[in-house]
Amino acid sequence: MKACILTWGCQQNEHRSEEIAGVLAQAGYALVDTPEEADVVLLNTCMVRQRSEDKVLGRVGELQRLRRSRPLLIGIGGCIPQGRGERILDLVPGADFAFGTAGLAQLPTLIARASCGERFACLPTPNGLERLPVLRRSPFQAYVTVAEGCSHACAYCVVPRVRGPLRSRPMPEVLVELRDLARSGYREVTLLGQNVDAYGRDLGDGTTFARLLGEAAKIPIPRIRFTTSHPAYMTDEAIAALAQGGNLCPHVHLAVQSGSDRILAAMGRGYTREEFLALVRRLRGAIPEVNVTTDVIVGFPGETEEDFAQTLSLLEEVSFGTVFAAMYSPRPGTRAAEMPDDVPPQEKGQRLAAVLDASRRIALRLHEARIGTTVEVLVEGFLPAKGRLVGRTRDFRTVLFPGGPAMIGRWAMVTIEEAAAGALHGRVVG
Question: I need a surface site. Which of 193, 250, 260, 268 has the fewest CB within 10 A?
Fold first, then answer.
């Protein structure tokens, strides 16, 4: 039987799809790249925003048309079913079965049930940590989950509901996986957690994110990254560990979400604007070359023009390397869903455009300062339409340059000759 896995959302979802692939491969399934080749298609979904849900529903409609000409099982899984509950089968009538964010080892059994004509949703509550086989997509880049779930419960965020509370993996187990990846020749590993810097807080044995970084730095993997960091949990000890350098990459993704103290309080973020700025100053004081990137939500309930102006001014004050911005949309079961969604859609769109415009201007300015420098790039892929290789620097900046697919997975020293908001452009030297 052939299976295709379609993925939406964050890096943890991407890694979860690698685990789903591992479960299916172990059960004898052949993994294929496109639905047209498959007997069963599994959709690993995201529900952080309404737009994410809408994209999934549209994809199910496309798959329904595909199976007019042949049998095809459709399983919808991940965060949307977990968040919507048993209603998911009514909301997505084209799905044959639904599964959530836990109990994934049972997927072969669930597919077998659906093959017999049973239509059902299997949505166990996320608790504990599943140990699943992994079928990695890349032979040189890897994800390692260090914690699942989140216990912070921001007002707008559905993650605690669909992923459960914070559950950290024991550090020895994480380090064993990292050493295995080192022996297998992996060049870059990203440590994953919904709030990765909260790692260890639930274990009660003195385990901290700073300690994990210190131990990871001893393992011979050339680059180690982590995502996503919550500003309320980034400690001075973790900053000091990152400042040791070595294989720890100088990039920190800190999701600020808003520049307004009033909105930050309504969101339940746990810090003020000044506390965030002080954190950035400490990071840059310890690691001058650090690239700080962020997330921003526009149009949160009650956000005024003045609140939004404070967000724009924060972007300029910090000069984030990249800003991932989105319009607020109510998520089921969150505190914010009970608040009046009082910012008109047109105004949300205008604010989003203003954030994106500001982020592009800032990124272009930062990139222009790199012209003439030479950077180390890990080559991640080839873009046929552009005839260029694409890779990233240690501080997580995208670089495009001439070359062939044979260089994918290798290191390249690239001199930067041009700058754009989205990427640096250069040529290989040496």
Answer: 268
Count the Cβ atoms, other than its own, within 10 Å of residue 218: 11
Which one, of 95, 77, 81, lies nearest residue 17 by Cα?
Answer: 77
The neighbour count for residue 87, using CB atoms within 10 Å, is 12
Q: Which of 48, 47, 12, 14 lies closest to 192 in space, CA to CA? A: 12
Q: Note the pLDDT of residue 3.
A: 98
Pair of tokens at residue 332: 């089921």
Rounded CA-CA distance 243/236 in Å is 10
pLDDT in tens, 131-141: 999 999 999 99
| Bridge-based pairing state of the strands 388-392 and 374-383 | antiparallel
Which CATH number does the domain housing residue 334 bear?
3.80.30.20
**pTM for the predicted model, two decimal places:** 0.96
Are 371 and 416 within 8 A, CB to CB?
yes
Six token digits for residue 33: 């790249």
Q: How many CB atoms lie within 10 A of CB 29?
A: 19
How many helices (H) does the chain have, and how many strands (E)? Answer: 13, 19
Ranges of the chain whose pLDDT falls below 70: none
Whether residue 338 is found in the same domain as residue 302: yes
The last residue of one of the domains, among 368, 388, 409, is 368
What does the pLDDT look like over 167-192, one tens digit per residue?
999 999 999 999 999 999 999 999 99
pLDDT at 430: 74
**Do 209 and 88 fall into the same domain?**
no
Could you tell me which of 251, 226, 190, 195 has the C-alpha nearest to residue 398? 251
Q: What are phi and psi of 117, to 5 degrees?
A: 95, 0
Same domain, residue pair 180 and 248: yes
132 located within any domain: no
Cα-based distances in Å from 364 to 172, 257, 322, 372, 383: 42, 22, 10, 15, 21
Half-sphere exposure (Cβ direction) of 314: Cα atoms closer than 13 Å? 29
Whether residue 267 sits in one domain with residue 296: yes
Residue 14: domain span: 2-122
Q: Extract the tokens encoding 202.
A: 């639930």
